[in-house]
Amino acid sequence: MLLHKLRWNNLTHRFCRDLSYGKGSTAPLKNAKLPGIQKVEPWDGKDGELVVEEDIDLSDVELDDIDSKDEL
């Protein structure tokens, strides 16, 4: 598995290096289209509302001191 990973990393490195030097090329995808532009409502300039979470009541939880245990 290690040998396969090293080989894959080497091929990936070589591919990216060739692209960065302008030597490599990629094949176009069949039926590839650019995504369409969606219409959305303009931003109102305000941040989103923070969801307030309830505090958890820990009064009924017993947390024993670790040093007081006599177990092995």
From TrEMBL:
It comes from the Eukaryota. This is Protein disulfide-isomerase a6. It comes from Plakobranchus ocellatus. The lineage of its organism: Eukaryota, Metazoa, Spiralia, Lophotrochozoa, Mollusca.
